[in-house]
Amino acid sequence: MPANFMPPVADYLRVSPEILLTFFGIVVMMLEAVSKGKRTYLGVIALLGLVAAFVANVPGLLVSPGAAFQDMLAVDSYGIFFRAVVIGVGFLSILASLSYLDREDSNAGGEFYALILFSVVGQCIMVTAADLIMVFIGLEISSIATYVLAGFLRDDRRNNEAALKYFLLGSFATAFLLYGTAWLFGSLGSTNLEQIRKMMPDNPTASISAIVAVAVALIFVGLGFKVSVAPFQMWAPDVYQGAAAPASGFMSAGPKAAAFAVFFRIFMTSFLPIHERWAWLMWGCALGTMLIGNLGALLQTNVKRMLGYSSIAHAGYVLVALAAASSIGVSSAMFYLCSYAVMNIGAFAVIGYVASRNERFVKIEDLAGLGRRQPAAAALLSIFVFSLIGVPLTGGFVGKFYIFQAALNSHLVWLTVLGLINSAIAAYYYLKIIVAIYMRQPDVATMQLEAPPFTLRLAMWVSAIGVLVLGLFPAPLLQFATSSAASLAGK
């Protein structure tokens, strides 16, 4: 046996968040098998696991930045940032789902919480992966759990349809990613991101082999599906509409943030020397994604489906930052993804509350009179909507501002102008929600509403406070994101 067969203790400490999440997920599953009646306490155990993982992720406690497991993982400030984001998404999603599962009389709540924990494990592996093989492993762990989450309510045909569509299209896209990895390994002899970068030509105008070019395109297709950018966005509205509201909120934030983290790490590490060859592709896809998302949302009456198209549009804004191909673009995208996570989870939490049992009320018109019947919930939903629009003093505004600034710094003037026009288009369909909340008489959906349970109120308030803090005091997070992005782009 080689002397270095056993990884050093530091390697295990660097993946301690994943170890803790896996442990708590297994505990929840075992307790689920022997529990009877309500299983709310299993959600509390899952929350404790996420808190433990978040604490373990803090640099200087258990985590010391550095490579792990023979450079397969890179636990740097960039990975630590995104690990914190996806763990936070998991925490808020479970907090918002505790009362939802009780309302729906779900007898498998423990499975729901365990699936979120396992999905977050995969996302944590993705955001720290320094090798394409680890990217694939993390993506599969996250995706399989998320496919099941989409169809969690097995007696609901909408859930079944959402899960089937997500699984079929997701598996197809993963094959593209794996095929691109195989082509890249066959051409360059390595799947390590840093090694691939060293084998790329130093001159941006130098020619690259056709195999490498095809591999880059295949990897883009695989990741493009995961973040729902055009023309790979067709699954998002159907899945978000059909899945349970807490699951939709989770899918729109956690897996998307993790996939974008991988997107930026690969293209700003391995493929940065040839960025002039893929920048035009990002430019076109960013514009197409914004247009399809915003124009599609204009036609929707189902608020969950509208948020699905909105999610596509927001992926387009993040892709603008990737098209900038700069450390400023990376840091602005990091901040924006964090802001988007809290405002979208908060919005889905309120929508799930108004939808009532079996999600009967998911039309925009079902929000009529919410401001009179439940003024606190209406005010919180308004905060989330204004942040999605990009109104000043919210996290959404700061995120968009820095993304478009990064685009201007990279001389992407037309893309910036078209992005601002798309933001104006988005304001129209978002404001339809505000009109329904405050300018319509209460209807059947809002008349029967009771005060939201404590855990749901807590999830909504924490999300709203996060949106406002990121809008009013963005400097600390921006500074951390800037230093993390500089280290990533400077490799």
Layout of secondary structure:
Blueprint lengths: L8 H6 L1 H19 L5 H18 L8 E3 L4 E3 L1 H27 L5 H20 L3 H19 L6 H32 L4 H6 L11 H17 L8 H8 L2 H25 L5 H24 L4 H22 L2 H29 L14 H4 L1 H15 L5 H15 L3 H27 L4 H4 L6 H19 L2 H15 L2
Antiparallel strand pairs: 1-2
- How many helix segments? 21
Sheet/helix structural class: mainly alpha
| Low-confidence blocks of residues | none
Average pLDDT rating: 87
Annotation, overall tally of beta strands: 2
Shape designation: globular
N-to-C series of helices and strands? HHHEEHHHHHHHHHHHHHHHHHH
Termini gap: 34 Å
As laid out across the biggest beta sheet, the strand order is 1-2
Largest sheet: 2 strands, antiparallel
The helicity comes to over 70%
Describe the model:
This protein is mostly helical and 491 residues long. The protein has one domain (11-200, 208-489). It contains 21 helices and two strands. The protein has helices at residues 9-14, 16-34, 40-57, 77-103, 109-128, 132-150, 157-188, 193-198, 210-226, 235-242, 245-269, 275-298, 303-324, 327-355, 370-373, 375-389, 395-409, 413-439, 444-447, 454-472, 475-489; strands spanning 66-68, 73-75. The chain has a two-stranded antiparallel ribbon with strand order 1-2. β1 and β2 form a beta hairpin. α5 runs parallel beside α11. The chain is globular, with a radius of gyration of 22 Å. The model has no long low-confidence stretch (mean pLDDT 87).
